[in-house]
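User: Structure please.
Assistant: Input sequence and predicted structure:
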Amino acid sequence: MRCQLESAARAAQKRAFFCFATLALGAGSSVPASAQENVEVTIETHFSPNRGGARPIQDAWIRELGNATWSIRVAMYSFTLQSFKDALIEAKGRGVEVRVLSDRTGLFFGDAPSCPAVDLYNAGIPIKGYVPLDPRDLLHDKFMLIDEYVLFTGSANFTTSAVQFNHENSIIIKALGDTPQFITSYRDQFESMWNNEFADFNGSFEDWIPDGPCQ
């Protein structure tokens, strides 16, 4: 990967690159595993924790959600971060299509529905929870796709612990020009889960409807 540094300030948390990358695509993509593509992208990285309680991972998420114009797809093990929930609801209110996939355990706080998840549901955002055939299996994905050209991934869940206290990382990859195959592979993976294509051998993705008071 050949990258031209956009901001050389070593102390800065945000590091952005213009990259001309040759990416090998894995077997899960819709092209042969040996295929490669040349893409032009920007890459931005953030980490937690930070001195003084700074939350650069959260700030980057909220910024990009505010820039979404037509589509947000979220696949996330757990989400309890209020500012993230509010940004999704605000995007929905501007007419952006928002869909959320979560591990079913992430939609509850103890035995009660999670209040952030209930707020999303009440705002008209469809949520599907993963119900595995083997209870040891999880939806452990942590990625978000905005408008099919901005991809977020990394270790961080959408939780306060992740953005402020845990040692976590987040990377934002923005395609310049046409949507590249490595981003459409994330889109296709999301849609495969959303359309319940794993039910016959792995587990189901079921519409989540909260029942009872939230916590």
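The chain is about 25% helix and 35% strand.
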